[in-house]
Amino acid sequence: MRNRRAVSSIRQVSGWLIVAAGLVVYAALVLLLGMAHISPTFTLPSWVAQAVPPILYATIVRLCFRRASALRWTTATLGLWGIHVLLGALTAIAFSSLGPLSVDVGTIDAFPPPALPEIFWVPLLLIPFRDLVRERASRTRRSVAANRPSGAAQRNAAPTSALAAPHGPAAPTRPGTSAQSRTAGIVSAADRLRTAGPAPRQASPALRSSSVQQGRAGENHAPRENTRGGAGFLPRRPDETTRRDDPEVTLRVSFGRVAEQLPPGAFHVPLDQIGASLAEPGHLLIPGRLVLAQLAEGFVRIGWEVVAPQFPHDLRVMTDDEITARLADGQLVLPLDELVSQLPTHLFAPSGRTVDIAGLESVPAPFQPVRPEDGAATQMKGPGTAPAGDVTASLASKAGAAFDNRARMGDRTVEMAEREDLVLEDVDLDPILIGQVDRASRLSMDAHHRPSRRGSFEELAAWPRQAWADDVSAQPVEVVSAVDIATMHRILAALAPLRTVDVRVHPVKPVTLFTMSPSGLDRDAALAAARILLPLLTEGRAPWPVDQLTMRGAEAVLILTPIGSMRRGGSVLLSVVQPEGAVAAVERLALRAAAVKPGASSEPPDRSAEWQEPDFLDSEIPPLINQIGASIDALGAVTVEVLRDQEAARDLFLFLPEGSDVRMTGRFATELDRAMRSVSESGYTFHTAVLRSGRRRLIIRAECAETGRATIVVAGGPTERPGLACRQVEAAARALCER
Amino acid sequence: MSIINYAKREISFKIVYYGAGVVGKTANLQYIHQWLPEANRGKLISLSTGDERTLFFDFLPVSAVSVRSFTAKFQLYTVPGQVCYNMTRKLVLRGVDGIVFVADSQWDRLRDNVESFRNLEENLQEYEYNLDETPYVIQYNKRDLDNIAPLQYLEFLLNGRARQVPSFEAIAVGGQGVFDTLNTVSRMVLVSGFAREEGARNEHA
After folding, report:
1. SS in 3 state form for A418-476?
2. Which ipTM score applies to this complex?
3. Closest chain B residue to A177 measured between Cα atoms?
4. What is the DSSP letter of B150?
5. Closest Cβ opposite residue A211 in set B163, B171, B186
6. Average pLDDT for B30-38
7. CATH architecture entry for A616-738
8. Mutate to test the interface with A, among B41, B53, B92, B181 (most CBs of A within 10 A)
9. Where are chain A's structural domains?
10. Which chain A residues are closer than 8 Å to B67 by Cβ?
């Protein structure tokens, strides 16, 4: 990479050679003029003679660097002029010391002035310094682009042009589909690229159909030879393509997708009634120019004042300022997918230069993956290769023939277990050691567990068919339902990146518990802990719908992920991870196994059930607690509540979004704390629980029990930075403990 | 960064998988590790920070088929995607020969993609590298999910520079597009490396 870096013009020798040569010529010219006693004498006012060089330099800089900012232009001009004056003075001193030549270089009231030769040399300095002027210009453009959409400035920024209506016939198709025509000539280029190497392994047809949109299989995975030529640092803004005389276009977004951002209590009536009473019922109307100005950012926000007139005044409780103050960042985030689908596709259509891939044809594809058909031993490399849909269908058709199912999949898993490289190495090294990674400790994810023929689907399935025939009667096994087997395969497919195959199934009424754990961790202890924690999830006690519950402790991290409705006998995936392990990745994969979409929380809390509420007393909120609450900014704006649990003689500090059910949350926190204490008797100790509910996190942390001032810190809210939120809650808990 | 060992007829390159957090960078490496023949790959090493949001810092040395009588070796890295680990990302980028920018196709991750792309450019500039002169490709990952943005908009967001680069749809956990991406960026790196080498020889001559 070193020799590819952009060498600044100031470091280029050739530029300085030109400058040096010019200086020699300059000296020679002055010397010749002096020796020849050529001294033009037509007189001009001195100020004119002084003004000519800077004007000339300013003109030259402007002509050479048309896009330079005013500051750079002025600086460059002044710089050249300064050098001009300095050189003239030095020249005068040098020649005055030569005496006999008696060059009259000090005269400044004649034109051309004696320093005229400087005018021919000084501009040469622009050659080595050209990047300083030019780069600054590009940086300025980038800076402007980077700051384009943010904050109130964007809200108030006047759009540059109106949204264009689609040219020609309207293009109602999704933007993705029109790529077909754009890439019609691209496949050939892609094919050229692919000729030297084998095609990589393809995913299942079901997968492909969902991923390759609308019959685009031919171009799937192919490098698209783009034909657009954006001119700037950042993607071209769509409003640059529109015509100024186009009429203003209004876009619509579903009110329901924005409503939850509005502050609670802002209106007299429920939000669904508000939606019906909007200017356009159920929708908010957004000026297209505001959307276009932000499209290159990947998200669109607007101020409340943009949509406020669409809300009936008589239904409002809060003023515009109050509503704005209570919005996150004072703005509403709009659903980008709805907006983009309403925009004409030509806004995103490529144009301009193409990708030059000609040179690549001479190089064969360096990497050739092992293909499934290369050998029987590699036919089933891992659980991720199993087409889940295929397995499910097969199971459904063989309902009731559990033995056959096990045996059929057993063939596959035997091969899977024979692989020796199903290992995830998890090494804790200082990043400074990049490139010096040597041998490090590794953590095997138990690819070679021994079949015990009890409880584990993998073990059941891995047992050879003949062995089943011999042993099944002598040693009965638990019957695993077809639904559980299908769920198991879904989990295995989702966890494929972890290379783990040690997933087991445990019926724990009223749910089925699937466990996944690496070796070195006590699965039984994790199972015991899960049995204690499960009622909190299955009985709808959590204040928010639960996508996932992560229990963090010093010895292990437990991740409980509901799969389907737990109240109707669904399943829960229990993942056990070492604290320093890949917790986030396992969380993500577990969510994927549970088919939980980000932001789509599953089961709402059961508010109808009557729980035994602790004897909570409202307490006064000291200023310090408010300060601590303000420090938890990763969870958005939170309000502070302090509850006193009389029975347990401890305080609950709750930092929750406004409108939260504080008492229900407090009750859940105390129950969870009680469960954590019970779990500690089973072998694992946990200090923090993180409940994931869509984009929201509820972090519960018990502190300083040993000091006699037991507290529970509960913080929650929507966050984009859950890791930071956890650290802030941890710091808050410490501060509360030390107060 | 590219190192040519004429004695052993080996040439080594460094390729970095860059992108926002949880976009599938590690999944790419894991799939590559899983499906490359054992003779062509080393150990996959995952470095975690131990922080709450696990951050992968992965390293996978792989060797390729012989190219122009040289054995091409590649060091594949991923970077931690989370915003707060920019120093680590900078370190990983040092001496990079090729970049795979992995983008999450989901609507709610587009902002992260754009910010990560800008962060990539800024970090490259720290080393006085120029993205326009660096071989790189873009991979639009997670195309199997429901809430994904259309390709045209993704291209508009991330591939709208003056220099257009190859881009790929991918489902990294299932392997779709993973080797296409790797092969293309590897070829770009090789072409660039050999061109540099020839240029250096000519200059020397």
Report:
1. HCCCCCCEEECCCHHHCCCCCCCCCCCCCCCCCCCCCCCHHHHHHCCHHHHHHHCCCCC
2. 0.86
3. B150
4. P
5. B171
6. 87
7. 2-Layer Sandwich (3.30)
8. B53
9. 9-133, 157-239, 250-343, 354-420, 439-594, 616-738
10. 363-364, 366
**Please, what is the average pLDDT of chain A?**
64
Structure tokens at A237: 């803004």
Greatest distance between any 2 Cα atoms in chain B: 57
Inter-chain CB proximity B175 and A231 less than 8 Å:
no
Element (H, E) at A97: helix A70-98
Q: Quote the CA–CA distance of A423 and A418 in Å, as a whole number.
A: 12
Confirm whether A439-594 and A616-738 share one CATH topology.
yes
CA dist list (Å): A223 to A188, A354, A357, A514: 10, 12, 10, 40
Q: Are A284 and A278 in contact (CB under 8 A)?
A: yes
Locate B56 and state its tokens: 């992968």
Tokens of A283: 């929708």
Helix, strand, coil percent values for chain A (each to nearest 5): 45, 15, 40
From the CA atom positions of chain B, what is the Rg in Å?
A: 17
Q: Which of A221, A365, A428 sits opposite B168 (nearest CB)?
A: A221
Q: Which residues of A touch B24 (CB under 8 A)?
A: none
**Crossing angle of helices B151-158 and B110-126, rounded to 10°:** 30
* pLDDT reading at A248 higher than 50: yes
Query: In this complex, do A203 and B169 lie within 8 Å of one another by their Cβ atoms?
Result: no
Q: Other C-beta atoms within 10 Å of A86: how many?
A: 12
Share of chain A above pLDDT 90, in %: 6
pTM of the model: 0.45
pLDDT digits over A439-471, tens only? 222 222 222 233 333 333 333 333 333 333 333
Question: Which residues of chain B does A375 touch, with a Cβ-Cβ cutoff of 8 Å?
Answer: none
One DSSP character per residue, B7-34 reads TTTEEEEEEEEE-STTSSHHHHHHHHHH
Rounded Cα gap, residues A23 and A29, in angstroms: 10
B97 to chain A: which residues are within 8 Å by CB? 1
CATH of domain A439-594: 3.30.450
pLDDT of residue A183: 31
Burial class (CB in 10 A: 0-12, 13-18, 19+), A158: exposed
Cβ–Cβ below 8 Å for A4 and B150: no
